[in-house]
Specification:
467 residues; 12 helices
């Protein structure tokens, strides 16, 4: 029997078991759902051995397609590991056009984005320092940013949930710099009666006050107390004060004009390094036939997916998603990546229960997958050579990432979380007291879904007690 055929048979067995056991929920899970006012027909639950040799311990509505929210990142990251390899890295090539004499480049500098999900402020600093290492301190031309490797429409960052300043709403970009966000750091100075304010990275043309007044108040709502005004992209204002009791705090915020973020970040960082620029930082395409002077390499994919899964980074997941079609077709597009993932899934797991991927991050109202499809994939991942990389990217219950605050007692589990308005769930692996490993999927689609956490914890504890 072929591997896809075997998995298809397993899917059928799982669905039959789910139909047979639809009402047999563990009492503690059933009680937790009742307290959360989430009806049974709004959840899908599955607990099955990783090797698929035993009947599912629990199967409830496993064949129903549901919105998985960020649990969908499991599909994107596992596909990425198999299609690109865990050692895959993203290059950001830099091109010098013109002659360099006495510290001045007489021409343009080109930076071409190829989808690096982790070109954060520190790595942008390193990239520009390497430019200076070429003997360039002044550019008698322009710095040109080439973003053409991804063909994606401009997105309204507030379109999904009306929160345009939340970094999780950042849109993908072939030259994604620091997630199109800034980090404001507040450091209280009791002697001066102010909190010093530092912005990272520096953005050219953006005014930020050097400090804000201190207040002798508690730290309950320190962001609200600042009364920040981000309406003008060129000037960040604060009408309030910073509570002394907070100590040092960081506030990450998506830049209010994301289309201009890259040019402002590069210009600001170049100036902070003492670099001079006669022209401007602008968008454009690099000329054909120009060889790169050097390439900035990203961390390996195995490291990148730890950020994607442990901290549920949406834009990094979308960068990986678009990279799949970029690598195979020369341009990263949503349609191209969806087709590649469909082909990969069909070859790997059969044509049954094809997931609806949308953008690869789960930050979507259109994504759909069944619990039995997720379980088949997780069972396949367990037998895959890249299993250690995928599993180590998942949050550990009560330890780190989005599962750090889990109250599942006595359970050892690696679980990817997902949450949206009306959606909450987890999927991953639970180690039982018997030493056997189980695949666990639990997803709710209901207006009260965000109250499901106690039920999830109860299910994880129940799955771990398998003796």
């Amino acid at each position: 029997m072929t591997f896809p055929r075997a998995l298809a048979v397993l899917a059928g067995l799982t669905l039959l078991a789910g139909q047979a056991l639809a009402q047999a929920l563990p009492p503690e899970v059933d009680a937790a759902l009742a307290r959360a006012k989430i009806p049974r027909d709004a959840v899908t639950l599955l607990v099955v051995d990783v090797d698929g040799k035993m009947a599912p311990r629990l199967a409830h509505r496993t064949g129903v397609p549901v919105n998985p929210a960020s649990v969908m990142k499991l599909v994107t990251t596992f596909a990425g590991l198999e299609l690109l390899g865990p050692a895959y890295t993203w290059a950001t090539p830099v091109y010098v056009e013109g002659a360099v004499r006495d510290g001045t480049l007489y021409g343009n500098l080109y930076i071409r984005g190829l989808g690096d999900p982790k070109l954060v402020a520190e790595r942008l600093w390193l990239l520009l320092r390497r430019v200076q290492g070429l003997g360039i301190q002044q550019i008698a031309g322009d710095i040109v940013l080439d973003r053409s490797a991804f063909d994606v429409a401009e997105q309204d960052p507030g379109a999904f949930d009306g929160e345009p300043l939340r970094p999780y709403n950042a849109s993908p970009d072939a030259l994604l710099i620091n997630y199109k966000s800034v980090v404001m750091t507040f450091v209280p100075d009791r002697t001066a009666g102010t909190a010093q304010l530092h912005l990272e990275p520096p953005l050219a043309g953006v005014q930020v006050p050097a400090s804000v007044p201190l207040a002798l108040t508690d730290c309950a709502d320190w962001r609200g107390a600042l009364k920040a005004d981000f309406s003008d992209p060129l000037r960040i204002r604060f009408a309030g004060s910073y509570p002394t009791a907070c100590g040092e705090r960081n506030w990450p915020v998506a830049y209010a004009a994301p289309r201009n973020y890259g040019t402002r970040a590069v210009a600001g960082m170049w100036a902070s390094l003492g670099g001079k620029l006669s022209g401007q930082v602008r968008e454009g395409r690099m000329p054909a036939g120009l060889a790169p002077s050097f390439e900035m390499q990203s961390p390996a994919l195995a490291e990148v997916i730890r950020d994607v899964n442990k901290y549920s980074n949406n834009v990094m997941a979308q960068q990986l998603f678009l990279t799949l079609s970029l690598q195979q077709k020369g341009t990263g597009t949503a349609d191209g990546s969806r087709e590649l993932l469909r082909q990969w899934w069909t070859a790997r797991f059969g044509a049954a229960d094809l997931p609806v991927m949308d953008n690869g991050s789960g930050l979507s109202r259109e994504s759909r997958i069944t619990a039995q499809a997720l379980a088949r994939m997780l069972q396949g991942a367990w037998a895959s050579p890249v299993m250690p990389e995928l599993m180590s990217s998942l949050p550990i219950t009560g330890v780190d990432g989005t599962m750090r605050r889990s109250r599942a007692r006595g359970a050892s589990a690696h679980l990817k979380t997902g949450s949206l308005r009306d959606v909450a769930g987890v999927a991953g692996y639970v180690l039982g007291a018997s030493g056997r490993r189980h695949v666990l999927v639990a997803i709710a689609n209901h207006p009260n879904a965000n109250a499901m956490r106690p039920a999830i914890d109860a299910l994880v504890e129940w799955a771990a007690r398998d003796q």
